[in-house]
Amino acid sequence: MRAIKHIGSAHKKKANDFGFLAVVAMSYFLIPVSRQSVIMEALGLAVLMPLNYTFGRESLEALGIGSGSAHATRLHVWAGIIALFGGLAHGLYYCWLWFIHENKSLDEIVPFPSDKCWRWDYGSPCRKKFVNLLGLSSGTIFLIMGSTSIWLVRRRFFRVFYFAHIGCSFILMFLLAMHYNKMILYLAPSLVYYFASNVPQWVEWIWKWIKGGTAIASFVEIPDSGGCVELSLRMPDQASSNLCGKFIRLAVPSISTKSHPFSCFVGYPPTELKLMFRCRGPFTKQLSKKLSKASSTDSISYPTVVVNGMRSGTNQWRHAMQHDTVVIFAGGVGIVTYISLLSFMASLSTPHDELENTEETCKAIRKRRKVCVHWACRDEGLIDYVSEKYIATLQELSRARTSNIEMKVVIHHTSTTPREAVVAQNGNFGASENDMSKSQLPIASSFESGDSIRNNLISGIAFGLIGIGGCIIITYCYGNIQNKHVVETRLIAIVALIVWSIVVATVVYVAKRLSTCIPSKGSYSKLSKGVEIEFTELGESSQSDANAQPEIEDSDRNDELAANEESGEKSWMTVLHEDERPNLKVSIQEAAERPSDEIQHLSVGVFACGPNSLIDAIRTTADSLNKGRKTDTKIAVDVYDEIFEL
After folding, report:
1. Cβ neighbours of 247 (radius 10 Å)
2. Three-state DSSP state, 37
3. Among 375, 532, 547, 595, whose CB has the most other CB atoms within 10 angstroms?
4. What are phi and psi of 607, to 5 degrees?
5. Rounded distance, CA 114 to CA 92, Å?
6. Cα angle 466-467-468, degrees, rounded to a multiple of 5
7. In this predicted model, which residue has the larger pLDDT, 418 or 337?
8. Beta-carbon neighbour count of residue 543 at 10 Å?
9. pTM beyond 0.85
């Protein structure tokens, strides 16, 4: 008998080991997907968005993780996989132990409605049954989450995946906390960090929604573009115009209860934030239909849209400045991801009348950065629109100013329709405006980090109060209120944490709204008198005296403001048109070529945004060039791609 009991105890210990594996994974499960995650920023990672996200292969080299894993969502996904495996193994092991090894019946394992366990003063046998029932329920929820998270469901039924993920996670949090007495201690890191990062954002989002959302400036349906539209949002705060690699989550409550990610870029003038997207899914189709109807009828107002802050992956500008040559491959509407990057590079140029033939200037121009953009697009209307509204503006700027960044844009027309016919049909593009959108709420969130000391202080106070207070609440509840013999007392800590997070976030945000502090302003630099565009500079304004050289500490920016004294009035930006797809290897090799008097063995940064087939081909080509296959010399190539699918 003792031997049988000993064997049973050994099996229970092994089953519990699988359970511990699951709860350890759950302890950091939510940290990678927390908003404005400080830990992820410190690791050089950022949250992946379902539409566009940039990452580089060097982000996790120190951790021994490959280039394909260099984003935070993979940590979240793998934590979920480990938790699912450990939890199911834990439950199945116990099922084998109960029904096969100990030959128990189901009514001995879980409480039936006819049992006397369904009362407040239940005893120890009933407590064990409730624990088993909670474990089986948690396993069922885990299976639902896992089955709805596979690629096929996410791709075809994203709404099912989203709501199943959110709903099941919320239920699972309570079930797990009641299943194991010490579970709250394992869940505490994830829960406290997640609530401290996200609840303030949610509170502000609700307030913006009540106040009417973000103002819509204009809406354009681009003809002959395959269903592409451009939405312009007003930016009354103008906190930052450097939007390289940033995106927003756009919520339209009248269409969907969830927010959707969109790449954004600075508008012309800089008081507008631009979104350009192709209407393919249910959300974008309904949004375009509502916006089009409101644009054509003065009596109908734009739908309420809510944007609470800008989000970013890795810094496109920082990665671009790490390389001597930057090659950008974009497919279709994916070009919008890099408009801000190209515009910001152009803003660092210097007017001809401010040039000085100093020794420092001559020394700085010896090393020029090359930027080569290859944009392949089959929609001639989209090409005409982007070229006329954005690329042509940069061309005019390049004729009036001088830069050490040599830029070449190659537009690859892949359509079978002659582009002259399409351009003649399109004519001028006009934006549809509707003055019924009067909201002047800022796009930036009060709780996101940035260049403003006040915003950083506000977000720091909210995060610190919720984080420290949450740890104190959980510790106190576990040691003084929670009773391991009473299952329902294990919920008190989580409920108290939620209430505390909401109260702190509301109080801090109300205090911020009532404060009389002067709004923070970004630092702007005018490009030219004829072009009303402003960009946030990393250094001092170019309007300062040309004789005073700004002090730049970042070694990556030693020569970005240098002028080309030999260029004169010659444009440093050229635009070419081709009727065939780009040859990836040839394009990268040509961009990496330098004159014999310049530094050789240069590093190349390849940025790519497009279909998975394009991304895979670029990575294969970069790997071949890195290893020197079929070439005489090796070329150091780093790839930063945009992910369209989770």
Report:
1. 22
2. coil
3. 375
4. -105, 135
5. 26
6. 100
7. 337
8. 12
9. no
**CA–CA gap between residue 316 and residue 608 (Å, rounded):** 11
For residues 575-601, one letter each, b for 16 or more C-beta atoms within 10 angstroms of the residue's C-beta and e for the rest, the string is beeeeeebebbebbbebbebeeeeeee
- CA-only gyration radius of the chain, Å: 29
Rounded Cα distance, 311 and 198, in Å:
13
- How would you label 2-34 residue by residue, b for 16+ Cβ within 10 Å and e otherwise? eeeeeeeeebeeebeebbebbbebbbebbbbbb
> Dihedral angle at the C-alpha atoms of 322, 75, 646, 385, nearest 10 degrees?
-30
Distance CA 200, CA 459 (A): 8
Can you tell me the distance from the alpha carbon of 53 to that of 122, in angstroms, rounded to the nearest whole number? 52
In this structure, what is the dihedral angle of CA atoms 75, 80, 85, 89, given to the nearest 10 degrees? 130
Please give the span between the terminal C-alpha atoms of the chain, in angstroms, as a whole number: 53
The residues pairing with 328 across neighbouring beta strands, listed in sequence order, are: 373, 607
Q: Which amino acid is at 563?
A: A
pLDDT of 601 > 60? The answer is no
Residue ranges of E strands in 270-324: 272-278, 306-312
What is the enclosing helix (H) or strand (E) of 10?
A: helix 2-26
State the Cα torsion 257-263-264-265 to the nearest 10°. 180
Cα separation, 620 vs 625, in Å, equals 9
* The two structure tokens encoding residue 626: 């890195």
Tokens of 49: 């968005």
pLDDT at 552: 33
Q: What is Dmax (Cα atoms) for the chain?
A: 97
- Closest to 563 (Cα-Cα) out of 348, 365, 369, 345: 365
Q: In what order do the strands lie in the sheet with 260-263?
A: 260-263, 246-251, 306-312
Does 629 score more than 70 pLDDT?
no
- CA-to-CA distance for 187 and 168, rounded, in angstroms? 16
Angle at which helices 584-592 and 612-627 pack, to 10 degrees? 50
Given pLDDT bands bounded at 50, 70 and 90, which one contains residue 586?
confident
Q: How far apart are CA 565 and CA 515, in angstroms?
A: 50
Extract the tokens encoding 344. Answer: 């910001």
Q: What is the four-CA torsion angle of 127, 132, 138, 144, rounded to 10 degrees?
A: -140
Q: For 498-552, what is each residue's pLDDT tens digit?
A: 999 999 999 998 888 887 554 444 433 333 333 333 322 322 333 333 333 333 3
Q: Rounded CA gap, 179 and 488, in Å?
A: 10
Residue matched to tokens 């050789």 = 600
Distance of alpha carbon 494 from alpha carbon 191, whole angstroms:
9
